[in-house]
Design a protein that fits this description.
The structure is a homodimer of 442-residue chains. With 442 residues, chain A is an alpha/beta fold. Chain A contains 13 helices and 26 strands. Chain A has a 6-stranded mixed beta sheet, covered by helices on one side. A 5-stranded parallel beta sheet of chain A has the order 11-18-12-13-14. A 3-stranded antiparallel beta sheet of chain A has the order 6-7-8. In chain A, α2 runs parallel beside α11. The longest helix of chain A is centred in the middle third of the chain and has 21 residues. The radius of gyration of chain A is 23 Å and the shape is elongated. The interface between A and B is large, with 96 and 97 residues.
Chain lengths: 442, 442
Amino acid sequence: VNTFTRWDDDFVEPTDAPRGHRRHHVVVVGAGFGGLAAARALADAPVDVTVVEPNNFHTFQPLLYQVATAGLDSGNVAYAVRGIFRRQSNVDVRMARVVGVDLAARTLDLDSGAVIPYDSLVVAAGAVSTGFGVPGIEEHALPLKRLDDAIAIRRHLLDRFERAAADPDLVGDGALDVVVCGGGPTGVEMAGGLMELFDKVLRKDFPTLPVRRARVVLVEAADRLLPPMSAASSRRAHRTLTRRRVEVRLGVGVDRVEPTRVHLADGTVIPAHTVIWAAGVAANPLARIVGTETTRGGRLLVEPDLSLPDHPEVYAVGDIAATAAPLPQVAQPAIQGGRHVAAQIRRRLAGLPTEPFEYHDKGSMATIGRLDAVVDFPGGRHLGGPIGWMAWLGLHLVYLMGFRNRVNVFVNWCWNYLTYDRGSRLLGEAQREAPDGSSESP
Amino acid sequence: VNTFTRWDDDFVEPTDAPRGHRRHHVVVVGAGFGGLAAARALADAPVDVTVVEPNNFHTFQPLLYQVATAGLDSGNVAYAVRGIFRRQSNVDVRMARVVGVDLAARTLDLDSGAVIPYDSLVVAAGAVSTGFGVPGIEEHALPLKRLDDAIAIRRHLLDRFERAAADPDLVGDGALDVVVCGGGPTGVEMAGGLMELFDKVLRKDFPTLPVRRARVVLVEAADRLLPPMSAASSRRAHRTLTRRRVEVRLGVGVDRVEPTRVHLADGTVIPAHTVIWAAGVAANPLARIVGTETTRGGRLLVEPDLSLPDHPEVYAVGDIAATAAPLPQVAQPAIQGGRHVAAQIRRRLAGLPTEPFEYHDKGSMATIGRLDAVVDFPGGRHLGGPIGWMAWLGLHLVYLMGFRNRVNVFVNWCWNYLTYDRGSRLLGEAQREAPDGSSESP
C-alpha cells in the first residue's frame, strides 16, 4: 500500500508538473548505458532529470546477437525505461527523438514539436551502424545494432530456411549461407551463435535440408579476429570458430554486396542470401545536430571533463563522444562516463571546478558460442574456454537490467544449454498500422 | 549424440523426399489446437503428414490477452511448429497459405505457387475476427485473435500513454480510456487485465498522468456477461469487474466506431482512443475457398463424423467447422475434433466405417484478473475466486506447449504477482523489409 500512495493522484501534481521546472533541469538524451548511468547517478542530486529516448526501452546491446540467433526473446534484452526509473522520483521520461539543439538558448526540439529547456545537457545517443559507403551494404546487408535489427536478422534467416524447404533449388544459390562482415566481438559472437543455431536447432527443424553444409563465413579486413583484444584471445577465437565449421577470412575487405552475393576485395564471390554487417558504427547523427566540432567518425570532440568546447553545461558520453585517447565502443566507457558527468553536474552546482574523466579499464570479453569465451584482463592476463564462458555468463547476468529479465534470460540459457533448443524462432510478428492510420513505431 | 544421428544428412533422404509420397498423405491446414491434435494423433499411423500453416508458430490463443496487457512476452504464447513436430518423423511442415482447393483432383494451391496433393485433408484453419459490418470496426478497432493483434494492442495502448505524457490535453479526449466490445471470455479477461495493468503498473510508470481516472468500459449486447457460462459465474464476473472499476454496459450494442469515439446503440458516446473488438469471429475465409456448403458465419457444414458432405476424405475441425449441435469456439472442441478425425483416417485406411464425433464437455473458465476466475464444471457446479484462479492457472500451464514456455510463463506470472510489474511493455519492435525488398511477414 505504501508503494502506491507515493504515486497517488492526490499527492502528485497533475499533468503539467514537468513543465515549470524550478530546480536545475538536466536533460539526458539516450537511455543506453551512458544515459542510464548519468540519470541514476543524479538520483539524490538537487536536480530534475528528463530522459529523452525514441524507444520506450533500454536495449542491452551485448546480447543482441542472442536475439538474432533465436536464443533469447526480445523482451529478455530490453527493459522499459519508465520501469527502470520508477523509484527515482526526480526523473521524467519522454519518448521522443531530438531533432534540434539550440546551444545558445539551451533548448531541445523534439520530433513531437515540443521544445524543452535544459540547464545541463547530457548527450548519450550512442552509435548507429554504417556501411562506410561500401556499395550494397545499406540495401542488402543486415546491421546488428538495434533490437529491430536483431529481430529482422532472425526473421530473415528463418524465412530463408522456410523458403528453401519449399523450394530446394534455393539451397545451391546460398539460401542457407551467411556472410558475417566484421571480426570484432559482434561478428565473432554472431558467427558462433549462428553455427550453434544451425547445428543444434535448424538441422533438427529442417531434416530435409542439408543444414550441415550451410556456410557461415566471417570476413575481417585486419589480419586477425578481435583486433582490440590480445593475440592469444584472437588465436583462441579463430581456432574455436574454425573447429565449429565457421570459415574465417582474414585480411580481406568487402568490395560490394548484392542481394544474394558478397564480393570480396580479392575477387572472391560468396553466394549467401543473408549478409550481416558488423563491421562498422558511426556516431548517432544527433552529433551533427548538436553542431560543435566532430571527428571523422562523426563523434563529438569533448574536453577532458567530457563537456563540449565552450559549453561547460553540455556533456557527451559513450559512443557519441570522442575523447583525446580513444576508448573502446562498449558498455564500460559509457557507464563510467555517465557517472562522471553526473558528478561534474553536482560539482558545478556546488561551485566547484570540474575534474577530468579517467577511464578504468576492466578488461574485455567475447563469447564464441556454447561453453567457450575469451576474456582479456587489464594487465595482460587472459582466460579462455569454459571458465571464460562462465565468467562471461555471470557478468552479463549481473549487468542485465532488472531481476525479471535476469531470471528469464537464465531460464532461456539453461533451456538452450540442456536441450539445444531455441524457443524464440517466431516469424511473422508483423508491425501493424494503428487503427487511426498513424504508425505505432517511434 | 544419438538424437542427432537420426537427422543426419547421411541418413535422411535429401531435399526431394517430401515430394514423392508413397504412403497415404494427410495434409493438415492450420497449426492451431485442432490441427496440432490431428497431426499428433497420427504419430504412429502409416501415413505421411504435411502441416500447412502461414505462420511458423502455434499461437496459444487463450493467453493472447496477457500479451496485449503486457503480462507476457509474445514468445511465451507461441511455439515453433517445427519444434513441436521435431520428434515426429512422419510430419513435414510448410509455412504457406492455402489459396486454392481442388476437391476433385485432391490438391491444394499454396501462395508460394506450389501445388500439393493429398489423400486425406484436415481443414483446421480456425476463425478470424469480424466486425459484422459495424461501421468503423475494421478501420478503428483492434481485434484480439492473432499474436500480431495482441502486440498491436499493447503497442497502441502504451503509445497513447506516452503521447498523453507529452501532451496532457489528450487525457480529456480519452487518450487513456479503453472500450472493450464484447462481454464473452475474451472481453472479460481483457477488461480485467487492462484494469490491472493500469492500476498496478502504468500508474507507477506515468506518475504525472491521472491513470486512476482512466476508464475501461466493457460493452456487451446480451443482458449478462459471459453469456455461455452459468448465471452465477456471470454475476461473479460482473461483481468483480465492477469492484475493480471496470464500467460494465449490458444490453446495448455498438452502433459505430470513430478513431477516438465509440457510439453505442442507445446514443451514448464514449471518448476512447483505444477500442478493442472482442465481439465476434467468423470462420477463416479458407472455408469459402473449399467451396462446400457453409453456414451464415461462413463455417463448413460437416457430417456427424466431421467429414465434408460427399467428401469423406476431407474433414473440418474446430472453429471452421459447423456441427449440427453448435460447439463452443474454444480449444477443447478443436482438440477433441482433431483427435477424432485422426482416428477416422486410421479407420478408413483399415477399411472400417467412420464413427460420429461426440464432444465431451469439460467445462469452461474465464479469469477476471489477479486472484479471481470463474469456472463452470459440466453438470452445473461452478467455482470462483482465488481457488478458481488457481485452477485456471494450473490448467493453462499444463496445456501450454513445451516445457520452456511453461517455465517462462510461470516466471513471468510469479514476477507479475509479486511485484505488480509488467516486463513486456516494449514499443517499437518494428517490422523491417528484407534487404532484398521483399516483406518478411508471411
